[in-house]
Amino acid sequence: MTVQAFDHSQTSQSYLPFVESDAQADAEELRASIDQRSYLFFRGLLPPQVVLQVRRDIVELLRQAGWLDPTRDPMDAVVGPGVQPTTEGKPDYMAMYRQLLKLPSFRDLPGHPLPVSIAQRLLGGDVLVHPRRIGRVTFPNNTIATVPPHQDFFYIRGAVDTYTCWVPLGDCPISLGGLAVWPGSHRQGFIEHSEQAVGAVGGRGVPVDDTAAEWHTTDYKAGDALFFHSHSIHKGLPNLSGDRIRISTDNRYQRSQDDIHPSSLRQHFDLD
To answer: Tens digit of pLDDT for each residue in 258-267?
Structure first.
């Protein structure tokens, strides 16, 4: 693995870069890689134009909500002067989010043949894409809402062999946030979660000794995709960009014949 230098001047700890995977690799190689590292990171898995169309549709909703600087290109997602951060659960956020979940481009993205192909090779059978589509709109200067270390299984239950695919909807350098994964952490099995960060998105997580944990992340580009197991410990990075909103989506894949928790068959937050 080649270690590259990241600019950590705005972060409290250092990170190693993801080990990149080959989207053309066969099932055996992909399974061996994710068993070793808890994740698969694909540079440019999705066509950038597909990802950027989803971004374009979402930033139009953010513009309509009055959150963006009208003097800047909406695709830059720069927060307007005087706009205060908002987050999941707040009425203004949820009003926007209800519309986001209806966007055809957003709903279609997890069913794109390329991530589905990766999921099929990992799972070795017919794949169910969870109907629950999840989007994240993360404001700067709101680090209290940063997602703590956790395992997705705590939230999704159902089949243990469920894989999340996290996709940044646009370029996402470390200063803008993104996800970091603790390699090998899924082999610890499921860990009971507790309140870790009051005000954080999700809020519950697992206690992690950062002197013992090793975190991998990267400066993401539009089209990149990160897969990880439901027991993989991962966390959000704070949006320290100063003025830009981070937009991303995470979706889940499992074998169609395996158990699924009823909540994964419903809309996120049970929105209509």
So the answer is: 999 999 999 9
> Tell me, what's the pLDDT at 2?
28
Residues with Cβ within 8 Å of 156's Cβ and at least 6 positions away in sequence, in order, are: 130, 162, 230, 252, 261, 263, 264
Give the SS3 label for residue 270: helix
In Å, how far from its chain's centre is CA 211?
A: 24
pLDDT at residue 5 is higher than 50? no
Query: C-alpha angle 257/260/263, rounded to 5°?
Result: 150
The DSSP annotation for 160-223 comes to SS-EEEEEESS-B-GGG--EEE-TTGGGG-----EE-STTSSS-EE----TTT---EE--B-TT
pLDDT band at 182 (very low <50, low <70, confident <90, very high): very high
Q: Which residue has the higher pLDDT, 6 or 161?
A: 161
**In this predicted structure, what is the pLDDT of residue 252?**
98
Q: What whole-number distance in Å separates Cα of residue 54 and Cα of residue 63?
A: 14
Structural domains of the chain, ranges and CATH numbers in brackets: 17-257 (2.60.120.620)
Residue type, 149: P
pLDDT at 10 over 70: no
Integer Cα distance of 121 and 119 in angstroms: 5
Strand partners, 217: 17
The one-letter amino acid code at 176 reads: L
**H or E element at residue 50:** helix 48-64
pLDDT at 11: 46
Cβ pair 137, 58 in contact under 8 A: yes
- Determine the number of helices (DSSP H) and then strands (DSSP E) in the chain: 6, 12
Convert 225-251 to b/e letters by CB count within 10 Å (16 or more is b).
bbbbbbbbbbbbbbbbbebbbbbbbbb
